[in-house]
Every structure is written in structure tokens, then in C-alpha cells.
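Reply to dn_fold:

You asked what the input looked like. This is it:
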Amino acid sequence: MFTQFYNEALRKLVIGFGSLFNDIRVVRKNADGTTKETIRVPLSYGPKEKFIRRIQEQSSISDPTKTLITLPRLGFDITSFAYDSTRKTNKLRVTSATSTDGISAPWNYSEVPYNISFGLYAFTRNQDDNLQILEQILPYFTPEFIVTFKMNDVNTKVDVPIILNGVNSTEEYEGDFDTRRNITSALEFTAKSYIYGPTKTSKVILTSEVDIHGSNFDGLVSDAHDLRIGITGGFTGEGYTAGNRIYGEFYYE
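and this is what came back:
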């Protein structure tokens, strides 16, 4: 039953979510209004507590030099997974891709809906930097922003709504004069995504035959009638003649 497969659906979702915020910039100006510097805010994956610990303590990356984490900075991580029964469909529904060789085609069973919760954290040293970051994010979520993913060879265009649930800002200002000021904004998101099962391959059905027994056609009764359906569809001729055969689609005997 259980075989190894990996569609990278969750990995692609994490990359897609992070790419929404990887080009946020903070502009600092002089007293006369001219631009002093433009900072592209770094983005990395990790829990909020990890960044707060790095901000509060000096690192020992190079010895004896001690460095502090640079601000502003953005971080994000997955906070929870939840099955969404409201989006459940028939689990035996099949999604097939277009055959490239006319012989076989990949397919998989119905996707499983999951709500993936993300946390995005903005760490700054002053309030203006924090507000600049928020204003570059909030206008795009009303409250959802739709991102299209290619999950696998079968599900090539999947629209995933990413919903902004709330924003919370905190400022750490207590302590002595040597304590570093830290302003943190936490944004909570929910991605209504899907998890996919293994992709399978089967041959393309080109023709099918249906045997109809005991049917009555214009008062003529026969024990066997054959209906042949080709790749072009069903019967398209102009009726039938008893004892004769219409080749390609339908024959009566």
C-alpha cells in the first residue's frame, strides 16, 4: 500500500510563500528628505524564538570578534497543519494529464485538502522601518492572495489562496540603557493547499465495445447487437439497415 513518492507539494508551498516577501526594501532618508540608504530586508526560514535569541545575544561566529544580528530582518516558518473537511471531494476522483505519446498518460487520485498555517515575523530596531515593511505587505492581502503552483506533472496549475488572518506588533522597551530596542511584528497566514498522492501511469483508451442483448430496433428483435465507439465518439451515421453493417461506428446483425 505505502510506496515511496515525493511530489514536493509542501516544499513548493514553502518556497512560494517565502518568495512573496523576498524583495521588501526599507528606505532611510536624511533630514532634508533625500535618500540616505536603501536596504533590502533579508529573509530566512526559522521560528520566531530563534531570531529573538540571536537579536538579544552576541554570536561567536568568528573568535574573538562578537557580532549582533543585523536589523531589519524577516523570518517565517510553518506553524501548523490542519485537514480541511469543507473542501473534501470524492477520494476516487481521478485527475489525468494529457498524453504526450498517445499511448500512456499520468494520473492520480483526488487531492487531499489541508490548511497550512504560516507565521511571518518582521524584526526592526525602529518603528519607521517596521511600518515600511507592513505597508509593503498588507495592501496585497484582502484578505487573500492567490498563488499558482505546479505541484506535479498531472496538477500543473493549482491556485492556492493565502489568507492573512491577523497582525500583531510588540515592542521590547524595558531594561537598562544598554538593552537593544526590538520591535517585532507577527503576521499570521493560512494557505488553503493540497497534498497529493503518488502519480501513476496507464494506457490511453482508444476504443471500447458494448454488447447489447435483446434490444428491439424498428420491430426487429435480435439476441446480440454490437455498439462500437471509437476515439472520435459515439454513433454518427444515418441509422442502420437490417442485415447490413455500418463500418466504423455501429453494426447490426
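Confidence is low (pLDDT under 50) at residues 231-253.
Hope that clears it up.
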